[in-house]
Write a structure and sequence with these properties.
The chain has about 210 residues and is an alpha/beta fold. It has one domain: 3-Layer(aba) Sandwich (Rossmann fold), CATH 3.40.50. The chain has six helices and 13 strands. The strands form three sheets. Strands 1, 4, 5, 6, 7, 8, 9, 10 and 11 form a nine-stranded mixed β-sheet that branches. Strands 2-3 form a two-stranded antiparallel ribbon. It has a two-stranded antiparallel sheet with strand order 12-13. Helix 1 runs antiparallel to helix 2 and helix 2 crosses helix 3. The termini are far apart. The chain binds 1-O-pyrophosphono-5-O-phosphono-alpha-D-ribofuranose and uracil (URA). Keywords: Allosteric enzyme, Glycosyltransferase, GTP-binding, Magnesium, Nucleotide-binding, Transferase.
Length: about 210
Amino acid sequence: MGRLVICDHPLIQHKVTIIRDKETNTKQFRELVDEVAMLMAYELTRDMPLEEITVHTPVSEAVGRRIAGRTMGLVPILRAGLGMVDGVLQILPSAKVGHIGMYRDHETLQPVEYYISLPTDVEERELIIIDPMLATGGSANAAIDMLKKRGCRPTKLMCLIAAPEGVKAVQERHPDVDIYLAALDEKLNEQGYIVPGLGDAGDRLYGTN
Ligand code: PRP
Ligand code: URA
């Protein structure tokens, strides 16, 4: 079973509460999603391997540690996943970015795929899938399926808010993927929205409805 990590740092919790508020406007929403993504990236990179390195300070030799060259890739699910990419890139500036285009059919709640573009060396990279919302889990599962079918290694799924139904669906289908959240909410409503959630993440990020 993949790990479920709730990033409960006070700054993340504070910002997510403002993100949820329906009075938060598009500009603030976008800025806060970006900031939370950056803060969550600290938690996601906690298990990066280190190696020893000796440097020379002005005083003496110092044995320090540096990241042992793990190559990462980010794969946001369009549209809403795009809102978190720049924040993560602030922590992982060398990561390459692929894109998966997918939307949920409003009637059936089934994901509809419309686009995929991946970096050329994607099979060599450890991939983080990025999407603010994990509701039924259909979109995340379909994105992970698409990546695995192409011989890729998606290891982490990063979302702002999830419903228990979505977490369960991903853990059952992809037990090799760890899930990182800022909040685990109560349930889905009849329309497949997360309760209490934040509404439609894409619409709030881009001012559509
Ligand atoms: C939202 C969200 C996820 C999906 C989650 O995207 O960004 O991709 O719904 O729902 P699920 O877990 O039930 O699949 P949406 O379909 O609204 O597309 P958008 O990002 O283009 O607005
Ligand atoms: N997609 C969203 O944007 N919000 C939800 O609550 C569920 C799916």
